[in-house]
Specification:
Helices cover 37% and strands 13% of the residues. The chain is built from 8 helices and 8 strands.
């Protein structure tokens, strides 16, 4: 790798793993349960990285303080948990990236806003070429991304300095968190980018069209 980078941290949804279909199915099952029509997958996919609140808002056209919102969110999350790894896979090329990291003894980890009660069963069910050395979920620390605390916590667990770490994510909050933590940052353009997003303006150090582009940094 480049001399100043000796570990890589990944966002989970939309960066390491393609979770969109399982989450879209959970949203459509929730819509059906509450008497609403299903949405096309293409409309749901860009919103997946933003979690259950964003999905319920998209599907039902309501806000978190509206009556019935939390009931719908909890239903969605339960359906998702019950079917958490039916269609989820590593993004094409990501398995090779992880294999090379492990072969070269380069530590890697996950920093996600997904709560641990969803992160842990997903990571346990997801076929991986080698195990990660650290997982920081959305409820591991007091703050979540875009706050840098989860990324700094991951560095502490890996016994490495932030300036020697690369954080890869597909949302603006990922790049903001990485920069605030003093890390190198890479934007996963293959992830769940919304139409109105301007990822080239997020000032990431690198832009990845596919996971394999990480290999050029090694």
């Amino acid at each position: 790798m480049t001399p100043t980078i000796n570990c890589i941290l990944f966002d989970l949804d939309g960066t390491l793993a393609d979770t969109a279909l399982d989450l879209a199915n959970a949203l459509n099952a929730t819509l059906e349960h509450f008497g609403h029509p299903a949405l096309a997958f293409e409309k749901i996919r860009p919103v997946v990285s933003h979690g259950g609140i964003a999905l319920v808002s998209l599907g039902f056209g309501i806000h978190p303080d509206d009556p019935g919102f939390e009931e719908r969110r909890q239903h969605l999350l339960q359906v998702y948990l019950d079917n958490i790894c039916q269609s989820t896979r590593l993004f094409p090329g990501m398995e090779q990236v992880l294999e090379i990291l492990c072969q070269r003894n380069i530590p890697w980890g996950i920093v996600t806003n997904k709560p641990a009660w969803l992160t842990d069963p997903l990571m346990a069910a997801l076929p991986m070429p080698c195990s990660t050395e650290v997982i920081v979920s959305g409820d591991t620390c007091e703050h979540r991304k875009p706050h840098p605390q989860p990324l700094l916590h991951a560095c502490e667990l890996l016994n490495t300095s932030p300036g020697q770490c690369l954080y890869v994510g597909d949302a603006q909050r990922d790049i903001q968190a990485g920069k605030a933590a003093g890390m190198h940052t890479a934007c996963a353009l293959f992830g769940y980018i919304q139409e109105q997003d301007q990822p080239l303006e997020w000032q990431a150090d690198f832009h990845l069209k596919r996971p394999g582009d990480l290999l050029a940094l090694m």
